[in-house]
Amino acid sequence: MPSLVLDNSVAMRWCFKDGSEADLIYADKVLDSLTSDYTFLVPNLWHLEAANVVVRAQKRQWLTTEQMEKFLDLVGQLPLTVDNQTAKQAMSATILLASEHNLSAYDAAYLELALRYQVPLATLDVDLRKAANKINVPIFGIADNA
Asked: Where are the domains of the chain?
């Protein structure tokens, strides 16, 4: 079964149920693809990044304990394949991508992973999409990658 790289910008829509209607539809499409066509590939920072967003949101009372528990249950059921080479790539390919495309190292890690495995990237991050387009990394669900 093919993989796609899952950026946290998509997974956070499953948690918070916020964003534009188009973002929510896209996030649902990504989740639906899991059951039929794809498995999710994530950098080894994915869980920490997601946990950080959830903890910060709960502290600010943007997320109830019930919402957090539902999200954690969903994440626990996802067949995520965690890349064990993310750290090794950090000081080479990832840092170069971050510098070249004006991305955070975290965002560049998703791009590097999609590039290395030659799989689509599922993201709602505008800058990450622009960088992916520049280096011909396909964006999941966008046929022309525009």
From this structure: 3-134
3-class DSSP state of 102: coil
Region of 64 (left: φ > 0; alpha: ψ -120 to 50; beta: rest) is beta
| Tokens describing residue 38 | 């794809």
Residue 42, Ramachandran bin (φ over 0: left; ψ between -120 and 50: alpha; else beta)? beta
Using alpha carbons, list the distances in angstroms from residue 21 to 13, 24, 69, 70, 117.
11, 5, 24, 21, 30
**Which residue, 83, 79, 99, is CA-closest to 107?**
99
Tens digit of pLDDT for each residue in 26-72?
A: 999 999 888 767 789 999 999 999 999 999 998 998 988 888 899 99
The pTM of this model reads: 0.90
- Can you tell me the distance from the alpha carbon of 8 to that of 4, in angstroms, rounded to the nearest whole number? 13
* Cα–Cα distance, 121 to 29 (Å, whole number): 13
Give the Cα separation of 80 and 39 in Å (integer): 7
CATH 3.30.1360.120, domain 3-134, yes or no: no
